[in-house]
Every structure is written in C-alpha cells, then in structure tokens.
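As promised in the previous annual report, we have extended the structural survey to additional targets. Below is the entry for DUF5947 family protein.
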Amino acid sequence: MTTEGALARLIRSAEPTPTAETERCDLCAAPVPDDHRHLYDTAAEEVRCACGPCSVLFADGGAGDGHYRLVPRRRIRLPRVDTEVLGVPVGLVFFVPRADGTVTAEGPSPAGAMRWEIDAGAWRRLTVECPQLASVQPDVEALLVNTVHGLDHHWIVPVDDCYRMIAVVRREWRGLSGGGRIWPAVERFFDDLTERP
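The corresponding structure token record, generated without further manual editing, is:
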C-alpha cells in the first residue's frame, strides 16, 4: 500500500457523498448547498436551482438569450398595500408583473398554486399609490401579501420565496380546510422573512 493511495482514499472518504435527496443544479447537475440561488426559466415559467458558477453566468443579464434570469435576493417590507383593487378574493397571495406587461396573482392550495390574471391597469394604479412596487423586476420578484386572520404582511420578495411559501402550505395542509397546522406554519414563514437589499 502506497502513502499516495492511502491519502487519496482519505480525501475521498472525507468528501460528502451525494444522496438521492441532494439538490442539484438544473443546468450542470452539480450539488448545490441549501442556500443556493435560483434561475427563472422564462419558457417554462418555472424556477430552477443553480450552483454558484452557473448563477454567476446569469448575473446582471449575463449569458444567454434571456431564457434564464437570475432571481434576485432583495426583500423589502412595505406598509399596508390596498390589494383589494386588484380583485383577488384571498388573503394569502403573491402578485407577479410579467415581462409582457401582464400581471398574475397566485395563491397556495393543497394542490399547488392557483393562478389568476390581474388587470394591468389596476396594477399600474397601485404602483402610483405605492411607488416601491414600480421597482418590482418582472417575472423574478413579487408582491407577497398575507392578510389572513387579521395579519398585515406586505413584502417585495424574490419569486423563490413565494414558491417556498407554497411548499409550506402543501406540506402542512390537512383535510378540506387545511387543519390546525397550516396557519401557524404560514405565520412562522412570514416571521422568518428579513429585509435585505
């Protein structure tokens, strides 16, 4: 047995072994850490996992033809926004302006996200009342709202936060009405949001 062979085995044994649950970059299949970045796939309208090197390729509109856009990280807590003018009859919802000028609203359900088209004129009027909404980047940022049970959460967030919230709802939902675990879990989700530039 050579020293070099033993050293090589020791190094290999210290490396984490990927498991079936290890998340991977959707572009190059490299393992990604829990706090990895995401890309928005404009063709599929889905969020994709990205490793560090692949996310750098798409930073500031870098590589590609716009098919993938790097999801930003900023979060801004807003004062109350009167979203009733947008005509969505639910209190847990997120609004995403799209690159083509349309606006969609999505709310969680036990089966995933429900989606509505929003009047683009109503969205423009709302951005006049709350100018920070005009800075929301199409497709990759959203206005996230929770007014359920008298709460008053209004945030500009990256869309991957919205999909994390939907995952919380799907994981905790029980029966027809959601059960007793759903709303405490949603409240914890909002309590854990922190502002970041």
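Confidence is low (pLDDT under 50) at residues 1-15. The chain has five helices and nine strands. These points will be discussed at the next consortium meeting with the crystallography subgroup.
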